[in-house]
Amino acid sequence: MRITTTVNGAVHEVDDVWPGESLLYMLRERMGLPGSKNACEQGECGSCTVYLDGEPVCSCLVAAGQAIGREVTTVEGLATEGQLHPVQEAFLECGAVQCGFCTPGLLVAAHDLLARVPDPSDLEIREALAGNLCRCTGYEKILDAVRSAARRQAEA
Amino acid sequence: MDFLQPTSWTDALAARAERPDAVAIAGGTDVMVDLNFDRRRPGALLDLGRVPELREWAAEDGWVRLGAGVPYSRIIEELAIQLPGLAMASRTVGSPQIRIRATVGGNLGSASPAGDAHPPLLAAGAVVEVQSAARGARRIPAEEFYTGVKRNALAPDELIAAVLVPTAAGPQQFCKVGTRNAMVIAVSAFACALHPDRKTVGTGIGSAAPTPRRAPDAEDFLAGELQAAGLWDSRGRLPEELARAFGERVAAAASPIDDVRGSAAYRRHSLSVMARRAVTWAWNDLREAA
């Protein structure tokens, strides 16, 4: 089937999509957007988190056809004009990235949190990131990064 | 595989009737897992995400008619007052990403004994509204809707339209045991609802029997004891022994199994503890409200 959808601000037409395939598969394997990661394929790990019409979702659990006519933003769409988003800068500076596999999903989830809650409590950060697993960092540096990004955002 | 994407309820029912080989998909949080892992290869996917009627809820005459496609995130935000038990359970579903997509209709369609929505629906006395193009709508009490492990009363040509949940007349509680606060498939779960207007008690047990189920003996026992002691009217303290005896009766209503998430014995024990605590919390809420 043909899927017409907006990804990172541009309208795309993707052909030969199998109706049972996930949005994640379409993004990675048919659209050359490997930023969203494919790990658990059952919504447990959050590594594939993207925005669908402005809401963070596990793209592995969205059928590609469900994205027809919708707006998708992936981790590749967070930076603007070659400038990393403050959330991305904070992850780099705080060492919130080790192997990096969970990072794209965490960036989208943290980006969403800070857009809704500019100055989140630790509890709010933990709750917002509860659907994203990281097996390297122990999460402390990720929490640091989100706090740091919130400060940057407040100063900007 | 075909991808069917009706944009109205009428078209959705027509598609359901024409394609018995189609699997209905709403949020996708259950169905896509089966597709990703090659456990299911249906002839078609019937995407219900573009049917506006399913994404609405309305308060009508002491009930909330909750469209089958309203996601848990909206139940938490919009229905915490009217449906406190369901809202509490909704907060424990998956993760933020899952709650934004997953729906009560999906929980009912999957009919897993571990589905988080089932215990509060049972405790509240909810009714499932299903519909087919050929025979119109029919209403099935939640306790009759679950017919076996991942089986429900839905006919092949029917879709779940909505669930009708009585607006809470008293406090409701929900408890769930799992290894962490997020992304947990319940080891066991319990919901209770106090109905002070009718002087009755509602219960719902999850993950501890082939289907979600009520504990009718526990309900009748507690309502009767509260009546006998005049507590419905006096709103006095709930005796600890009564809460404990209620918990034991709830546990006795379960028929759990040993599996990877927990043993049958643990499920029974945890149910008795959850039921004792939940009913005490609910009763204390009732006393405070008085």
Automatic annotation (TrEMBL), chain A:
It comes from the Bacteria. The keyword Cell division does not apply. One of its GO terms (molecular function) is 2 iron, 2 sulfur cluster binding. InterPro entries: 2Fe-2S-bd, 2Fe-2S-bd_dom_sf, 2Fe-2S_ferredoxin-like_sf, 2Fe-2S_ferredoxin-type, 2Fe2S_fd_BS, Beta-grasp_dom_sf, Diverse_Oxidoreductases. Keywords: 2Fe-2S, Iron, Iron-sulfur, Metal-binding, Oxidoreductase. It holds the Pfam family Fer2. Residues 1-78 form the 2Fe-2S ferredoxin-type domain. The keyword Lipoprotein does not apply. This is Carbon-monoxide dehydrogenase small subunit. It comes from Blastococcus mobilis. The lineage of its organism: Bacteria, Bacillati, Actinomycetota, Actinomycetes, Geodermatophilales.
UniProtKB/TrEMBL annotation, chain B:
The keyword Flavoprotein applies. InterPro entries: CO_DH_flav_C, CO_DH_flav_C_dom_sf, Diverse_Substr_Oxidored, FAD-bd_PCMH, FAD-bd_PCMH-like_sf, FAD-bd_PCMH_sub1, FAD-bd_PCMH_sub2, Mopterin_DH_FAD-bd. One of its GO terms (molecular function) is oxidoreductase activity. Transmembrane segments: none annotated. Pfam families: CO_deh_flav_C, FAD_binding_5. Signal peptide: none annotated. Keywords: FAD, Flavoprotein, Oxidoreductase. Residues 1-170 form the FAD-binding PCMH-type domain. The lineage of its organism: Bacteria, Bacillati, Actinomycetota, Actinomycetes, Geodermatophilales. This is CO or xanthine dehydrogenase, FAD-binding subunit.
